[in-house]
Amino acid sequence: MDYMLFAIFLAACFGAGATGMLFPTGTWYENLDKPNWTPPNWMFPIMWTSIYLLISFAAARVAGLEGSGYAMAFWAAQIAFNALWTPTFFGLRRMKGALLVMCCLWISVLGCFITHWQLDFWAGLAMLPYLIWVTVAGMLNYTVWRLNPNTPILDLTKI
Amino acid sequence: MDYMLFAIFLAACFGAGATGMLFPTGTWYENLDKPNWTPPNWMFPIMWTSIYLLISFAAARVAGLEGSGYAMAFWAAQIAFNALWTPTFFGLRRMKGALLVMCCLWISVLGCFITHWQLDFWAGLAMLPYLIWVTVAGMLNYTVWRLNPNTPILDLTKI
What we know:
Two copies of one chain form a homodimer. Chain A is an all-alpha fold. Chain A has helices spanning 3-22, 26-30, 43-62, 69-91, 95-119, 121-147. Chain A starts with a helix and ends in a 12-residue tail after the last helix. At the A-B interface, helix 1, helix 2, helix 4 and helix 5 of A face helix 1, helix 2, helix 4 and helix 5 of B.
């Protein structure tokens, strides 16, 4: 594996993951009705850090391989939607909009999983926890949206 | 060029560009002191749409070429930092933080320009307007930050 490549992909993950630090959960999220299977708050940074390391490893393994075009395109798409989700949910409190972002993210991650798997066994395996986690996160987003139908979105133009 | 690849890279751009619709400029930005060379508001969506089309074209041309690993890694990094900038500046009103994001974005775009250029003349050329535009945007970010030193950031945990 090319460690410099790994570092650049990890920098991309850091860009997306920085939204989690910049838009913290806070009391608004605490006060939402959530399903009893909601993962505890401490679990999210651990899961995301592990996933970011795994997907950077996966990308560094397949980048530049012959036929890696689709794998790289899906990887770029997932990191963009990943960066978009947190500001949409925690910044704007748009739970329905965030669910739409989550659908785009889920499709991108599925695309990543399939294309990485076809190129390299270990790269595909490294994508699997991400696919499982965005499935859980998507179900959580959907459920929280349905449990809190009247939560107002945050209109930044009025602040 | 593979049009399906182009579409996936464009979807990534749409993910990053959606922040421009979700976090509009509004009165807060209007009331900031800005340099006299600030581009008019209508110019931003035109520039970004053109740039997104150009960089998706560039990525679709080089993706999967032998030795395209670094080009794809820098492309992924730029789209993540691109998605991060708008929520940081317009969402959180963190001008200094946004400047840091802009530095990361600028380095990623420079990396894209060099690596795409080495692989394909037209892909490199298509990256050039982006490099120029993020240089202007970075200078604008810096100048607006210096002209408005006492602007409070938006603390979402208190809303």
